[in-house]
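Dig into what follows:
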Amino acid sequence: MKLLAAVAAIGLALSAPGAPAPAQDTEPRPREEAYGKTPEDLLPFRGAGRPYDEFFSEPPTFRGPGRDAPEPQPPAEVRLGVLLPAAGPDFDEGRRMRQGVELALADGNAAGGFRGVPFVAVYRDESQAWGASANAAVELVLDQGVWAIVGALEDSASHVISRVLLKIEAPVVNTAGTDPTLTEHMVPWMVRVRPDDRQNGYRLARKIFKEDGRRKVAVFRANDRYARMGIGELVDAARRLRYPIALEVRFENHETEWANQIERLRAVDPDAIVLWGRPAVAGRVLTALRIAGLDQPVYGPDRLLDPAFLAAAGSHAEGLVATSPFDPTSDRTEWREFRDRYRANFDEEPDAIAAYAYDGTRYLTRAIREAGLNRVRIRDRLFAHSEVPGVTGSIRFDATWNNVAPVSLHRVENGEWVPE
């Protein structure tokens, strides 16, 4: 009831009259970069000619009022909301996400904050009952007075949040989600700075079928939203390359025995297996596969680059190839300096969760400094740049404002991840 009342109280239709959105400093995109940066050989129906119409070719635009609203009196602090998992199986990812946010805010405040006023994070737990993240977003904006939101980790929470953004009109920078459909809503309040599973699927397909020459591939994935949505682009890419997936079997995250699924895989006798799931359970599944004698090459998505995966899989992870949204072994100055500060502050290595939380928060504080304390103008600044720098590398947005920077590949060698 609180959510419905809040939405009804402040709702404004997108078609409401108001000042037009400012022009964006973007250039026309080539077709292959218009949406998802899909490679030519993976375009759907590519043999049928150019489609009559193409979706997601124009950036989402907010045409409502609010840009001319005066700024408030100088506040004591500029609040940013942060939604992350503070409990449950994703607690460690949430902790690293929080550390990335904290480091970005510390750097921003050391550089003067917002006109001498400090940026402050207001945290909320996304790992509540389904749908609670929308209530949290409303509470952050209406009760806590945050100017924008960072998060969430799980895409199910972010999808729910997107449903209320049209009403609460607050900018969101997603730094951790990988569901390819997240920005397909074309909600003009959300950008994503981490490459999604569309990019993971394209890179894995090229590696598996073209570079390594695999032909009969099986998928062993978690029976949850993350794996179901994540694997979809790889499955489609395999079919378009004319090597459709031979078998797809699933496991529940609470399971500890996978004998039936393993026997089905054995019967198919694939020449490669794609493993998709949360790091810890995926590591246990891989261990079971190896103990059962299935020694085929195994591939996986970027979420496996996590200490929990190597801890669970141990020596059985040797040789596994997974994507990475950027190269954590890079010697780029920006990355090296960030890594050193992160180590000094938190006594551990930064991963993609922490690094993109840092980049996304820094991108947001930059937008606030440029736009002032006006949510519509902050939103405009977030959507004003088609490419921005980050410690993770160049963040390049497609027409839905989803990062399509190329992903890399890493392999487990001697118990460590090394770049291919």
About this structure: The CA atoms of residues 25 and 391 lie 22 Å apart.
